[in-house]
From TrEMBL:
InterPro entries (UniProt xref): PAP2/HPO, PAP2/HPO_sf
Membrane topology listed for this record: Multi-pass membrane protein
Entry protein name: Phosphatase PAP2 family protein
Domain Phosphatidic acid phosphatase type 2/haloperoxidase: 68-179
Species this protein is from: Biomaibacter acetigenes
Keyword NAD in record: no
Amino acid sequence: MYQGGLFLKGLLNYLYQKDTKVFVYFNKKMRCRILDFIMPRITHLGGAIFTMLLCFILYVSGHKDAKIAATEAFITITGSQGIVQLFKRRIYRKRPYMVLPEVNTFWSKLLKDYSFPSGHTTAGFSLAAIIAMYFPAYSLITYSLAAMVGISRVYTGMHYPSDVLSGAFLGTAFAFLTHALL
């Protein structure tokens, strides 16, 4: 193997070890009864039901800016989720509970698809970025909730931190791209 390949392999191994170390911290060392109750519920804020329902409510009950924001959010979420699925089908990264020992999970029926990137985090940041563009006063709240969705995905054993960071980047970038194109 040429020297560049050895460097890249070493770098990827180093990043995986750091990713795993942060995962273990959030999934095992931070564990407590309060977070065990809160985190599995917060994670649903990035799910399809909540994000699509929020877009619908914003569209139906809102004024002109709210309708435009809801439309952009819907396009952003559906478009970014398409990219998430494309990545998951090309980057075969197994979920942490499939690879690491004694991962804390919170559901009896676990996902069988791949881990990279986090779709919940992507949806959360897609929605947060659009809402922040149209309603800047709510940006701290929306981005904080999106970040909590990402943290919950690690806490509940569904994703590595790099899956979440990639999802946050993808959701935010897709929101800005959608906004710029529309």
